[in-house]
Amino acid sequence: MKLKDKTAIITGGGTGIGRATALLFAREGASVVITGRTEKTLAGASDEAKRENSKIDYLVSDISKEEDCKDAIDYMIESFGRVDIVFNNAGVIHQAKTHETKTRDWDETFDVNVKGAYLMSKHAIPYMLENNYGCIVNNSSILGLKGSSGGFAAYCASKGAVNQLTRSMALEYADKGIRVNAICPGTAYTPMVDGMFEVVGRGDKEAAEELYRSVHPIGRLAQPEEIAHAVLFLCDDNIAFMTGTMLSVDGGLSAK
Ligand SMILES: NC(=O)c1ccc[n+]([C@@H]2O[C@H](COP(=O)([O-])OP(=O)(O)OC[C@H]3O[C@@H](n4cnc5c(N)ncnc54)[C@H](OP(=O)(O)O)[C@@H]3O)[C@@H](O)[C@H]2O)c1
Question: Which of 16, 21, 40, 160 is the most buried (most CB within 10 A)?
């Protein structure tokens, strides 16, 4: 069990990559809390863990709100006495060219993808400093490393900001036992991507999926579990020398 005696909080843990990571972490022995705005999906993940004879707690929480982030970290401390791992995974995407992007969509993209990661980290780090131990993983994207002509400027900008937040936090706490890394996934089958295929394919999801498959050198898209294993890798104490890294998990896409 790679995470025995560790505690982990995962934002956006009711669906997609967050859910796969929560289930994997619970199997690996961690005490896991997931957050999100939708009780039904959070409860679904918790039930799935029960069926596997492991355990996931959940908390309805909106990471764009500071009070909710503070409460979520307080919940970790009240429940377990410590917070070892924060996986800042929750994210949103809106597809529109820059001049057609609604300002409220731009704001939501930054409030969730960037401010959410900052707020969760801000409230967890004081406890991590007390223990001289912590592991923060931010879920960035291949689109944090590369631009896109497909109408994802707000998303690209937010994930670029996540990468710079990752590098800066890694440097701030490198000598305090807190490691901060990011994963940069290519396209994985999740509800977010399902919605994106609908928009990009203008109703023809299969055509959109084929297009995305064709740009990944590996010739297929990822399952969320494959991304979850990369997050687990980053939380492994055996790689304690690794901080400030953007880890691409993208079927070779960033090598092009
Ligand atoms: N799938 C991919 O191909 C891919 C590629 C690169 C990066 N990523 C990144 O991976 C992360 C997870 O996405 P996913 O693909 O797994 O899609 P997903 O299933 O849609 O997951 C996104 C999660 O974020 C939560 N969320 C959104 N707004 C929130 C808020 N204000 N407060 C709390 N939770 C919120 C959602 O739950 P609620 O709606 O219930 O709040 C949902 O569980 C995102 O950061 C995404 O940018 C995904």
Answer: 21
Instruction: Write the pLDDT tens digit of every residue in 128-182.
Output: 999 999 999 999 999 999 999 999 999 999 999 999 999 999 999 999 999 999 9
Residue nearest to atom 8 of ligand 1 (CA): 141
How many structural domains does the chain have? 2
Tell me if 254 is assigned to some domain: no
**What residues contact residue 17 under an 8 Å CB cut-off, 6+ apart?**
89, 139, 185, 188, 190, 224, 227, 228, 231
What is the value of pTM for the model shown?
A: 0.98
Ligand 1: lining residues by beta carbon, under 6 Å: 11-12, 14-18, 35-38, 41, 62-64, 89-92, 112, 139, 141, 185, 187-188, 190-193
Provide the CATH number for the domain around residue 12.
3.40.50.720
pLDDT in tens, 118-127: 999 999 999 9
- 35 with 58: CB under 8 angstroms? yes
